[in-house]
């Protein structure tokens, strides 16, 4: 989850949800809390680099939820270090899907970052990041990130695959130990839930406008002149805004005041097909997030099942004066070689690019 929050005090304590889970001792209950594995569609799509092209889409959608926007405005430092913030956060988020028997522990880790994200917004409404409704909304946007990425950039999904992904997203959400009360009971109910949120509850607030107008300052660790960096990232951010406009549900696009024509739709679909064809030759070492790649290698027996989990590069750590705050994940320090490899992957994954010269003998992880 992102470091987001909610306008109402939590209605169901996560500890209570955990107690409810522990009370379920039958076979069905054990199935409910088992982690996702390499046979799942979620594994296939969530760790794919192409999800990065919807960065502005998901960031804006999360912040449009009033409860999340309030917490972001008061607690987030995203605008000061957007690349570092996104890069380090993705590692534990990926882990809830890809960490196997350790996925629930990773879910607890993420929850712990949200315990102190609370307060009162400008309209006098209380919010807390662990409110079940709000925490689930953030999860729902990650689920829809998979649906939208597959639809636009991976060749599409059948209705059966969407239903399977819905069931998997429920199984995935159980890894957090949160109350299951807000979770729709079926794919049909989820579509109604999503439509209702988009039409009735999402709003354009300061946190959303900050995402739309975001500027990506050059991080200190990128060996590139600032002028060149700016020339690369301005059009990339603009392209992500355009993609977001096309992928938004019509009510959200209307609220955001974005124009979308038939010509735009045709161009986006053609671009999506080009991306799909291009990624046929992109090796897994570039296509997959490092946490996902390591998970496939564990599943194939190429590395030990208890191998240390892949952590974010140390150069993505939050500013030193904030590293003691409980809301931040602080990656461990790594060797120079590890930093170099992570730098390459992080830079290109965050730009939404996936170029690589395929190696004829490269091992496929998926």
UniProtKB/TrEMBL annotation:
The source's domain of life comes to Bacteria
Q: Name one GO molecular function term.
A: oxidoreductase activity
Per its UniProt record, what Pfam families does this chain match? MPAB_Lcp_cat
Which residue ranges does the record annotate as region Disordered? 1-35
InterPro entries hit by this protein: MPAB/Lcp_cat_dom
Q: Which portions of the chain have biased composition (kind: Basic and acidic residues)? A: 13-34
Q: What is this protein called?
A: Uncharacterized protein
């Amino acid at each position: 989850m992102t470091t987001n929050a909610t306008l109402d005090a939590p209605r169901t304590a996560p500890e209570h949800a955990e107690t409810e889970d522990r009370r379920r001792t039958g076979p069905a209950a054990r199935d409910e809390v088992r982690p996702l594995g390499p046979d799942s569609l979620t594994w296939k799509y969530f760790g794919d680099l192409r999800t990065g092209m919807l960065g502005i889409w998901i960031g804006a959608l999360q912040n449009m939820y009033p409860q999340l926007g309030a917490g972001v405005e008061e607690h987030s430092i995203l605008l000061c270090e957007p690349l570092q913030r996104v890069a380090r956060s993705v590692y534990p988020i990926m882990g809830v899907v890809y960490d196997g028997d350790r996925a629930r522990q990773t879910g607890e880790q993420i929850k712990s970052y949200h315990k102190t994200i609370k307060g009162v917004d400008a309209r006098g409404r209380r919010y807390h990041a662990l409110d079940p409704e709000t925490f689930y909304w953030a999860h729902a946007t990650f689920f829809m990130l998979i649906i939208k990425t597959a639809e636009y950039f991976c060749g599409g999904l059948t209705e059966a695959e969407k239903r399977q992904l819905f069931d998997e997203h429920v199984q995935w959400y159980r890894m957090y130990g949160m109350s299951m009360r807000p979770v729709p009971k079926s794919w049909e109910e989820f579509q109604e839930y999503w439509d209702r949120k988009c039409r009735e509850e999402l709003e354009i607030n300061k946190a959303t406008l900050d995402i739309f107008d975001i500027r990506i300052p050059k991080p200190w660790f990128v060996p590139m002149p600032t002028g060149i960096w700016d020339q690369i990232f301005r059009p990339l951010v603009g392209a992500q805004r355009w993609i977001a406009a096309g992928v938004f549900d019509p009510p959200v696009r209307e609220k955001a005041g974005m124009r979308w024509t038939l010509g735009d739709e045709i161009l986006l679909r053609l671009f999506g097909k080009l991306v799909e064809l291009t990624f046929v030759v992109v090796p897994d070492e570039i296509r997959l997030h490092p946490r996902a790649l390591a998970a496939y290698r564990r599943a194939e027996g190429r590395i030990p099942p208890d191998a240390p989990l892949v952590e974010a590069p140390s150069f993505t750590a939050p500013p030193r004066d904030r590293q003691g705050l409980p809301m931040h994940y602080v990656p461990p320090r790594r060797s120079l070689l590890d930093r170099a490899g992570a730098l390459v992957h992080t830079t290109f994954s965050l730009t939404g690019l996936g170029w690589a010269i395929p190696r004829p003998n490269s091992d496929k992880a998926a």
